[in-house]
Amino acid sequence: MADVKKIATRESYGNALAELGREHDNVVVLDADLAGATKTSTFKKEFPDRHFDCGIAEGNMMAVAAGLASMGMVPFASTFAMFAAGRAFEQVRNSIGYPHLNVKIGATHGGISVGEDGASHQCCEDFALMRSIPGMTVICPADDVEARAAVKAAYEFEGPVYLRFGRSGVPVFHDESRFRFEIGKGEVLQDGNDVAIIATGLMVGEALKAAEDLKAEGISARVINMATIKPLDEELVLSAALECGRIVTCEEHSVIGGLGEAVCSLLAEKHPAPVRRIGVNDEFGHSGPAADLLKDFGLSAENIVKTVKEFK
Question: So what's the pLDDT on residue 3?
Fold first, then answer.
């Protein structure tokens, strides 16, 4: 996949918002003094009267978004994942989640790949935080095509949605002419029956690379892209456990509270199966180039291959 075009999903977010703005007058975008980084500046250039910079006051921004939603608008509240899920958690819970308002949260710069910004900005807890809010939908797209489709699906969905996007470019592997996104549904990108690799976000590309390497060693790996963390596609996970026997989950998030735990909780209740979780292991990140950090924390195709081969 080295020659595949790479696009950061935050770029996809900005482009999708602009497209939505052209189609729907009720779309409004809020930002917390980060329009250039979150790429909501793309929307702002076309629709300055529907873009609101709330300043470095993320809690206030979520409350403003709640007010706009209560008046029939569809607000996309945008900032870094650390501030959207972390700093503004109380307002997201009480002002958006509790009244179940139609607010979409666009959280960019999620995970270790924020890179040089360091541990304070490397949010690896957002899936856990947002999953804990009743009625919150949590989505983490894998590439440009899926990210743009997810933004549109979030607009069409009635209720609060948390969308996580990345800072770094990731390979585009979906064929836009054939791809269809549905909230709550995963997709099998490659079939196999020795092990199922269930990945989300930028780890999907790594899972595909790992599957190629495993195939060369005679191991048949099923690769599942699980863009929706909540609600989880239970049917797809259960069929993978039944047909493959072993599951490896991969996420650019803590192994606590994210995709891995969602999969484990489901299997523990409905079809016990051995699972290995690849993610950030109960530790903070540190500053460094994104590519180096992903390898340092085992978020790589090489570590997926190693984990599968050691998985007895």
Answer: 64
